[in-house]
Specification:
The protein is α/β, with parallel strands linked by helices. The chain is 32% helix and 22% strand. It has nine helices and 14 strands. Strands 13-12-11-10-6-9-8-7-14 form a nine-stranded mixed sheet, covered by helices on one side. The chain has a five-stranded parallel sheet with strand order 2-1-3-4-5, with helices on both faces.
Length: 345
């Protein structure tokens, strides 16, 4: 029997990948789609991406029978939509970020656990060959114990192409939460270690003077459970003219007792400088897991998740920690010890 899916919001292009995977699945059926923003609704229908059946998601929830809600609305609206879906017993898959407020992720965690509902998210870094390869190298033990990780997730802002709601107050929710959540999800998955302390974070307006409330800069300093230090910069500082092809785009450098490894989202290989050797090794990349985030969500629903797959608790944990980091950057708070049992309170 097919699982029925309804979509709420098409305000960010990432939702299109979810729509395509729903349509291409033999086990899923798209039964409804909601978009309250009329220009977006018209564009979606004209493009043939989906037939818009509702302009009010609450009315859709009340009138449409479904098992899953897929969310692609503005960042600042996602928390309420997901909470309402969970209250009605629906599993949820969403683009990142899941939500923009700490109280929202706490309620989402409470509802998903209390009702045994699954939460999926488009954490696509896990599905890319460069980062699967980096994880495999770490897991092999060749890097030894990991003591330092430096990552840059710089993005071009491309203001003319971004949705206008990005720059509306309360809609974007912060650059750290927008971009940094990918790294906060990837690093524990790759290392097997948890974050324990947010040492410092910074969120500020540097390039986008037209919107002084929009903090395009985002940096962080974190500590993991073995004392490993993590430095990250996820600012919208990359030149628009270069798009997403620069070697600095999602670049991770990992320092362990066994050597140093580095790769990036645009790299064709993995670089490994092994301790005790003089020649740098250039390692081949494994195949990608296209749509791995989506397959993981369905496996989670069906109780068939494998150890390496993304699960509801991973999504909740990464989202909560990233929102804590965003708050630290917004409010200039230092040395926040992360409560490992936050979702049980």
């Amino acid at each position: 029997m097919k699982l029925k899916v309804a979509i709420v919001g098409f305000r960010h292009g990432h939702i299109f990948d979810i729509v395509a995977r729903i349509k291409n699945s033999t086990n899923l059926q798209l039964v409804a789609a909601c978009e309250q923003h009329r220009p977006t609704a018209k564009s979606i229908e004209e493009s043939g991406i989906a037939k818009i059946t509702h302009s009010d998601y609450m009315k859709m929830f009340e009138s449409v029978e479904c098992d899953i809600i897929a969310v692609g609305d503005c960042y600042g609206k996602r928390g309420n939509i997901i909470i309402e879906a969970l209250k009605r017993g629906k599993h949820v898959i969403t683009d990142k970020p899941v939500c923009t407020r700490l109280e929202e992720i706490k309620e989402i965690a409470r509802l998903s656990k209390g009702k045994n509902l699954k939460l999926g998210c488009q954490f696509t870094i896990r599905d890319m060959p460069q980062f699967i390869g980096l994880r495999d190298l770490i897991k092999s033990g060749k890097l030894g114990e990991i003591h330092s990780i430096i990552f840059t997730g710089h993005h071009p802002l491309m203001m003319d192409e971004r949705p206008s709601w990005y720059f509306e107050p309360e809609m974007h929710g912060g650059t750290i939460n927008d971009i940094g959540v990918h790294a906060i999800d990837f690093i524990p998955w790759a290392t097997g270690m948890k974050f324990t302390i947010i040492n410092a974070a910074r969120s500020w307006n540097a390039f986008v003077k037209k919107y002084p409330h929009f903090n395009d800069g985002g940096q962080m300093m974190l500590t993991m459970e073995n004392g490993c230090g993590v430095l990250g910069d996820v600012s919208y500082f990359s030149p628009d003219s270069h798009g997403y092809v620069l070697p600095f785009y999602w670049r991770f450098t990992v320092y362990g007792t066994g050597g140093i490894a580095e790769t990036s989202a645009t790299s064709k290989n993995l670089t490994f400088a092994k301790n005790g050797e003089k020649q740098i090794q250039i390692l081949k990349l494994p195949p990608p897991r296209n749509g791995g985030y989506f397959d993981s969500f369905i496996a989670d629903i069906n109780g068939k998740s494998s150890p390496e797959q993304l699960k509801t608790q991973d999504v909740l944990e990464s989202s909560f920690i990233t929102l804590l980091i965003q708050e630290a950057g917004d409010r200039n708070i230092r040395e926040i010890h992360i409560d490992a049992n936050w979702s049980s309170h």
